Amino acid sequence: MALPKQDIDAYAVITGASQGIGKAMATDLARMGYNVVLVARRAELLEQIAATLRQQHGVNAIACPCDLADEDDRRGLVEKLEQTRVNILINSAGIASFGPFKDQDWDYETTQFELNATAVFELTHAVLPGMLERKEGAICNVGSAAGNVPIPNNATYVFTKAGVNAFTEALHYELKGTGVTCTLLAPGPVREAEIPEAEQSIVDKVVPDFLWTTYESCSRETLEAMAKNKRRVVPGPLSKAMNAISAVAPTAVLAPVMGKFYSNLS
Q: Which residues are designated catalytic?
């Protein structure tokens, strides 16, 4: 198989497109000739990115500001997508929290759930009927290698990502033979190639440099996997290690070890 063909009337929709994996994938898709709809909260930044993509790659790049954690904002986006010819959907937006679940800010936790899980669920449902009718489309949902394991001190995040992982892989099998593909991106640590020391987060400082993968390499590997209709892509050395270990290590051993590590991130 291959990715859906570029078409003047069709769009690739990318959430979380103002930074990170989402921005890298939007850039690569525009470079490949796809029109793109960029979804994120920051309208001014999103329009700057869209303008750059229009200028550099000659595609139709549309900034679509939306708070995906807000039910009303999300409903408006869903209505737009249902009226748009979407041939690629990248659900990349997401956030995380660290520390004991009982100590977390409840508003942040519910926002995390809406963004990481509900938005993926609703946006996938919005574009799938049109893709199936046209017998062409590609969906990529960004889950996580962390979604393979119950990790103490990361409970809400693994709750959402475990759901995204299983949901996406279930759809992968459901959609076989329809012309529509569904691929799970399950990364571990991903970041810019270089981060000034003053801007490094605690995660940047705790995880050694050689274990990280960049947003750009993550995007390339993911698009290649989507074109081959792979069920799951796991980019980068630490992601691959986490994926392999989680498949064989007993939860009773693995969860406390990872929970201890994650407690240092709060």
A: 157, 161
